[in-house]
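Hi L.,

You mentioned the student needs an example of a multi-chain input paired with its predicted structure. This one should do, with 1218 residues in total across all chains.
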Amino acid sequence: MNVVPVQPPGEPAGPARNEPPALELRGVDKHFGAVHANRSVSLTIAAGTVHGLVGENGAGKSTLMNIVYGYHRADAGEIRVHGRRADFRRPHDAIAAGIGMVHQHFMLVENFTVLENVVLGAEGGRWLAQGLARARAELERIARNHGLAVPLDAVVEQLPVGMQQRVEILKALYRGAEILILDEPTAVLTPQETSQLFTLLGRLREQGKTVIIVTHKLREIMAVTDRVTVMRQGAVVHETDTSATSERALAEQMVGRSVLLQVEKTPARPGGVLLAVKDLEVRDRFGVPRVRRASFELRAGEILGIAGVAGNGQTELLEALAGILTPTRGEIVLQGRNLVRGRVGPRERRRLGLAHVPEDRLRMGIIGDFTAQDNAILGQQDRPAFSRGGFLRRAAIAAACEHKLRNYDVRPPEPGRLLSAFSGGNQQKLVLAREIDGDPQVLLIGQPTRGVDIGAVEFIHRQLVALRDAGKGLLLVSVELDEILGLSDRILVMFGGEIVAELSRAEATEQKLGLLMAGVKEGAA
Amino acid sequence: MSAPGRLPRWADVGLLPIVSLVAAFAVSAAIIAAAGENPWTALRLLAAGAFGSQEAVGYTLYYATNFIFTGLAVAVALHAGLFNIGCEGQAYLGGLGVGLVGLALDRHWPFWAILPTAVGAAAVFGAAWAFIPAWLQARRGSHIVITTIMFNFIASALMTYLLVNVLIKPGQQSPESRELAAAACLPGMRALLAPLGIHLSPSPLNLAFLLALAASALVWVYLWRTRWGYALRTAGKNPVAAVYAGISPSRVTITAMLISGALAGGLGLNEVMGVQHRLLLDFPGGAGFVGIAVALMGRNHPVGIILAAVLFGGLYQGGSELSFDLPHLNRDMIVVIQGLVILACGALENLFRAPLTAVLARRPQNEAE
Amino acid sequence: METYTLIVLLLAATIRVATPLLLAALGGMFSERAGVIDLGLEGKMLGAAFASAAVAAVTGSAWAGLGAGILVSVALALLIGFAGITHRGNQVVAAMAVNIMVAGLGPSLALAWFGLGGQTPQLNAPSQRFLEITWPWAEQARATPAPGLLYAELLSGHSLLVYFAAALVPAAAWVLHGTRFGLRLRAVGENPAAVDTAGLSVNGLRYQAVLISGVLCGVAGTYLSTAASAGFVRDMTAGKGYLALAALIFGKWRPYPTLGACLLFAFTDALAARLQGVALPVVGVIPVQFILALPYVLTVLLLAGFVGKAVAPKAIGVPYAKED
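Structure written out for the whole complex:
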């Protein structure tokens, strides 16, 4: 990320003498049903610092912060705020104790004005008019002090995302927050907005506020924090001063293994072009272009990796290729057939040999209330193997499903079991099994190992390489650089919806990719 | 949004509806007691009135025929994630279709030719009335619950107009059509079974009951044994996954509502061709709403729907007998029970689910996790 | 009768028909703006109509009847809330269940308690009803048609509950937009998570909203059985609850437009009653059914976006559950 590092403050940002820590957690434990989200977490955050909390998706960071904010209640453990024991039953209690939180998904009422959003829950009296007038004066003061200019009378849904985030921060400050928690604050921001945010956080620290920033982006941690805590699988595994660590060290702690994955594979022997994309443009429902003029070719017998920070158009590219989103211009040619002009839908594309493992499999790829075998034919329901004359071939479906479950070690291998009764990792494996075993010519695969346990990662990677060696074309989208580097034969980098670079595996290095992903042009590198 | 625990499937399908039903009946008993009657006596009379004689069973199954049709209609829509409150109006229009076919053809065509035409007309008219709300939901996002309610009222106004001004038998006061000739009437069950040496007491039970059972079987095959049914259930459970799988949720919305309306139209066969032998006002008589209770209680499964429809048929038949012996009760009490069953089975499930899950969870289990 | 008088009488009838619609629709507005679908207007009104008539008959006091009507309506509202808010059941199903249950319960209890085949005893004594209030000099004013008849028929000569309903419109608008409660209510119907993280209780707010709807439906039902008529009869709401809901949607969930929709729908109703069998110039006899169906057709057209666009509160019908 192209981030302005926060200047170290004149005085040491560390804990002032004798001052109790802003936040102290001891043995915080939380279960959601069978999921052990937080395992006896202990954590100390000094007042007046910016503290980073990092970990992979599902490491329990957000849950922990939601407990601190009183949104969830811990099953066990103790929380102290500025040395005082706190027992938060609801956000109200946390707010009263001076804690503010900016959630990953903003908690704003979209058709309210900024002013109305800020005062909601702290209106200062029964009658709105006086309350709003008082709030306006107070907010103007806060805005001046922190350099947080926000148009108070604008309707929130008409503001850009970065501005909406400022409203959230303003909301917390208006309620007198001394401790500000930001959950994945940069996930939706442009690089410019990100650097503005970090400047703001630095100013807040100077004024004595404590900031906790939850993220999985290590570059940002290095740029903005004083101290950092690493979480893995619900537990704290590492804590250190930021100045005493490096991205690589943090990454190893996060993942829990030595980082670079070695995937056994021979050099690719690319064949003819399977999929050609020309000048593709995809807009979201607000008309904002998400993919801009993307052009590339995918050949038989190669894995083409698409690297990029999440939210730079990879998702939309994948969905447009799969036929879920309709491009506003450009061409997608699959084995000589123009899919865009022919208005070929997802089902037809599958029949033409295009398989798709979606990024968010649990949302898009499965139906929890269906059995495993009904899930195993999703998208393939009208193949002759599974239905004839409109009638489903139940016996064949069950047999094929059991085969997949056993091959991919999905446990238990019971085709008649409801999918929601399988663990998340096993659900993931079923989707992969379905798409990979469907004999595709081209496989679109998003975040293949997200949410999968480490043991299964190797297995999945081997399957992908085997598919390549069988002469298929694979388009791999992943935000995990290691995965891209480990699997790809050729790498495209996406930034701001554009394909900004194409590299052969040999010339690609982590650093080079990192810069490209951050939008730094090659010349500048 | 996963519940804290998971109810085993057999309990979810079998036990939960029974627990809900028992709760609904317990509250009903309390109301009956408050009305000054003994609930046990009422229950005994109800059971005897519904199932105590061949004739009673005949009436019970005649009512159940209507409820099977509307219950299936509600269930098919629910499988597609749609709440069709408009079965009442769709059934009304379906009956209009049946009546028009009968009035037009009964003096010209034989029964065997009129029957399939009438079945087709019931389905087409019912489906047509469901099509507009479906299209509005699919293409313009209009809330189907509201539009189907509005269409019930519009159907009612339309039918009143037609019967009062157009279809009324000349020289008659009450808004009814002329009587249909025998060629446009469904044979009663008594007449159907007599050749087989089975002699039944007279009752309104007719061929439409067998058509309802056939419709149940077809619905089952469609939903669970065809790829179209698979698509329908997929779109109902997870529209995002449906798009991913190449299934168009809006097309499913329209298909499901067409099937739903067609099924609701089946009620017209039972009422117009089977029993009344004419078109008259308000022959659906609330069966469209009973269909909601039947579908919810029957877990949206044809077998469950048939069972629930027979139960409600029994309530309706037994209920009309109640008032002869218990001066403080009448058929209205059945409507109360109906409402309570919908509440318990459809909206208060979670009230019973949590304790039931807790009880069952104490038993040893071999879960994967 | 001359046309002018006819029109004034038609408008007076419109006001009377609109009153229960307006009361229920405003109640529904609070509920729906808080994100709870209010399909139960019909059942709550009907329950209140029965309870108020029954209690007024027994006690001889219309006010006691009003209290009972409100009590029953609120109890039903809480029942729907219990299913739909606390237990996150389907709000539509819960409301339909209550509507159906009440449709049977009223006549059942009427039979059991009064032995009168589904209705309550006639309310004969003036104290049992909310009768028309005649304003000073109203009778004398009738003599002068232009302002006088308007005064006598439109301003004077309505039940107390009519004036209450009229006063309720600005009050509701003010509560919704001028108070802290209104701000929170609107927020909870749009984004309950925002309300939750702002430290407020989502379910608490929704219960308050549902409670208000219960109270107003209670008044509406009481009006039907103790003001508009003299006692409860089977199915006396006859779909007015659904019509009120249609008016609420037609009014785009806002107080003044909802008032307008109620008046429009009531006018069609009053007109239909007037035009029964009357041949008009040019068009001849208009079937009353067409006029009666008009509000429903208009609402469908509005929902379809053919006449304006009704945007419902975003979180309507979705029970609130915290994310894991």
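You could point out the following to them. Residues 2-238 of chain C form one domain. Strands of chain C lie at 132-133, 158-159, 279-280, 284-285.

Best wishes,
N.
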